[in-house]
Amino acid sequence: MKLATRLAILCGTALLAIIMANALNTLQTNRIGALYEQRQQAREAQVTALDVARDLQALLATYSQTLFQEDPAERAELSGEVDEWDRMIDEDLRAAARDTADPNTRNQYQQALTAWESFQRSYRSDMQNVRTAQDAAAAISQVDGDVALLENQLSQIDEETSRRVAEVNRAAGDSIRTSRAFLWTFVSGIVLVLGILMFFSSRNIHRTVTESALQNEKARRAKEIQAELMTDVQSVDDITAACGIILSGSAKAVGAKHAALYLQQPDEPGRYALTASYAFHRRKGLPNSYGLGDGLVGQCALEGVRIEVTDVPGDYVEITSGLGKSRPASLLLVPIKFESEVVGVIELAAHRLFSDDDTDLLDSIALGAGVALSAIESAQKTRELLTVSQAQTEELQTQEEELRAANEQLTQREDMLSAQNAELEETTEELRTQKEELRASSERLEAQAHSLEEKNEELQHLSASLEAKAEELAVSSRYKSEFLANMSHELRTPLNSILILAGLLTESDEPLNAKQHEFAETIQQSGKDLLNLIDEVLDLAKVESGSLYVDNEPITIAELVTFLERTFRPIAGDKGIEFLVSVDDSAPGQITSDYTRVKQIAKNLVANAIKFTDTGSVSVKFSGCVDTDGSPGDGYLSMAVVDTGIGIDEKDHHLIFESFQQAGRGSAKQYGGTGLGLAISRELARHLGGDIALRSALGEGSTFTCYLPVDSPAEPDAAAPAPARPAPARPAPARPAPAQQTADVDAPGDTADRFGPVDTSDVAWPQGDKPVLLIVEDDPTFARMLSGLAAEAGFDSVITASGRMALALAKQHQPAAITLDIGLPDMAGWVVLDVLKHDLATRHIPVNVVSGTEDDGRGMRMGAIRTVNKPAEISDLRSMFSSIADFLKPGPRHVLVAEDDANQRQVVKHMIESDDIAITCVGTGAQVLDELSGGTSYDCLVLDLGLPDIDGIDLIERIKDQLKEKRLPVIVHTGRELTAAETERLENLAAAIVLKNARSPERLLDETALFLHRVADDMPNSAREILANPRRVDESLEGNTVLLVDDDVRNVFSLGSALKRYGITVLPARNGQAGLDALGEHPEVGLVLMDIMMPVMDGYEAMRRIRAEPRWRHLPIVALTAKAMKGDRQKCLEAGASDYVTKPVDMDQLTSVLRVWLAGAPRGQRKPPET
Predict the structure, then answer these.
(1) Which one-letter DSSP state was computed for residue 660?
(2) Which of these three, 337, 370, 386, is where a domain ends?
(3) Residues where 4-aspartylphosphate occurs (predicted)?
């Protein structure tokens, strides 16, 4: 019988047995299912009886309360509850009496329904007749008697259904046991029959499978050997090395003890030379190369087929080793072919005869070797040709340069000769016409020539004197500009003290009268005005001294139009004048220049026009011109600002662009201003390669035209190239999602105030119905990806790479959420987060931190809802946007309060309760864990450490394990003294720690509002006043010690006074050396405020010495400088500063920086944050 027939019989028998077993099993399963359906019906009847009994007890209890209740309102409410219980019992009994499948149980329910209807009539009649307490007692006694029958009926139903369930369980168990016994017997018989059939069939199957497996193993081994050889060959680019690898692998694969490979010579086709060998012992008299038909090698190459020699003569070839030598049993020569051409021959010798498997393996190896060797040879030729080509290209380039230079020299010489010939012809003509005159007046001309020589000498002396004077004036002007640019320190240092002390006066704990408060505000505002004036003077000085750097980038005219429309149309409307912006067809689509400086020029010109125009209009027209003379063309952009204002007298035109000058003596008094705007604008335009022209007459308005080159000119020689910025100032990414906007300001470098005003007028904030996401990210590619994912999640987005712009946009537009990168070019992302969470206008906005460092919980402690680490997976980012969408859904925030003291629970609940907050109070750790594992998703946990069943710190760790990836802010609210070890553990586990004291209600309100992201305007007035109190103690700063190193007593006094208001201990030091001594004496110092320009030892040297000490390597140092020149910030950071603050010091900025460095990380881990 054939194998296939046996397998068919075996499979058919097994299939028939399975079908029979399945049929019997189906019958038994159906019976068991019917029994279980009966049990389910009995269970449902029993549950209904228990529900009715429970509801009956609730009705009786409520009925009793109703009879004894004298207050009509309360009695009416209780009567409503009695009616509700009555309705539920009546519905359950009627449904059971109607729908119960078992007849006996249905009959019992019908009897119970009859008893219920009797009891229902009785208690309702009694309720209406009760008037006194005695009547109520009698009615209750009567009801207790009436209800006994109904309770007895329900008890009988419970007993009957329990008995029915037990009977069904027993019947089902018997059926299951019978089914199992049958199945085991049937399966055993089938297994026995199948085993006998399989025994007889398995022998043939085993024999066939074994032979097939042997053949497959041989084929697999051959392919594996071939693949390994080809992989090794592909890893080298030298043909000799490749031949060695092929020969060695072939010999080892077939067990050959001697082998040689002969390769066709590229320069001598038809000749094969020894290229590689394996265990080869060279013999005298034998050649190293063979032609076609020479010897066995040549014959194998000629015929292109294998040659095998089995009867090898004794002296033909020897296989040698260190111990001896022997004669091989067989030789095998295999041709290596590529595209039908023999490119090589492999010769092998072995102590045994080569098998068919060996020859097949060698054929396949030779086939692959032909392809590989040809590829290596082609690559070698390509490299050689490339080298020759490169050498020839370089030589041609050299010759081309030499020819170009020679041609230029010949051209110049030809031009010179042509000019000289023309001059000679003219001179000859003149000499010919004047020959007679010269002859007659030679004496007079000689006298005149002598006189002219004397005058020429005088003119040369005068010219040299004028050039010297001009040089002196240029040097003097440059020194003046450099002096002004470097005066920043001396001007800003006293101004810093003025502004800080004025701010302290306005926020003083001691009340000021109205006049004193007005004086303090006037001092502060005047100081700010003086600071703006200083900045304008420094801008002009930097332009004149050549230290202003240009950052060129593409600027579209549409951007400039949008900027002007948004900035000045409201201002012109308020003044009652018309404002027009137009673009001529000749205007270029874009120019390449410094966007910030171009905006500054446009802003100055238009603002100046609006200021001096009381009626009429101001218009701006963009067009193209060939040069700064205004003639039509496309080399320059012309921006003409035309007004109908007072105009400028022609005699005053030369004064308009001078520093601190205005047209007419009354202009400054009537219209205000310093006279610097136009001077700065013209110098900026010239610095950008353009100019500004004026056309005006008194009483007829003015036209200021700014000409800027379309293509940016080369940088002036006087200024070094600007250093590359960490991120483009104004990225223009592709817009992957609708309503995505890009908004940035220039990286502030070293001069900008990081917390100063920011111009957001050119940001097109989305106006649709979708929530807007503010993406703060300096990597344009990653920002575009975030914007695309935000669009998928249903958000519009605005992108900015600047922390300053992010703060301004968040406060102005209130985005639905923010994603915040930590490594921003202008300020640390942690500082941005701190400012957002300490400003009542923005603290409610949910912030998602995107950080390149490991998440240590810092983001959550500072108020972020989530931290995503770079590099981020797409799934993590999608999860982040999904969680933002869930967070923004309307509904109350859920707070869990865990406090063992009932009074304290009520106090905490009263402090934070609101219409938009749902508070759940528990008293044990077990209840906390149960609540968190339930269906409610809590947004915050307020936890007392002294719970009766679980230690508070252990409970937090268990919560972290239970919630896994989900983040839950835990606010520890405790009155017990914490040890240092407990404090360290809690700082790594909890979001905040609030110790129970006089200020703990304020702290608790502050922390819960922060982590619940509550809108301050929606909170009660009392809570809003607590959060808005500027003198509220910041515990993240309180108790810290700061070393203030500054040689100016005024700064030490003003800054020290301001910092002491936050509970900070300030240690003063007059110079860098004194600061080092103070650090050695006071190890409790947590941060150093370091001035830069000091005697004895400046701030740079002091910071370098501090960083040289291992114990101070991670001590935060904040540099304070008033100079604010280009490169100062980088110079401070290279010297060892952790952060950088310019004078005059903004206290909000300084406190944010201090909070980041003093409280941003757990104690003992205050490493420099990512910037």
Answers:
(1) T
(2) 386
(3) 821, 944, 1091
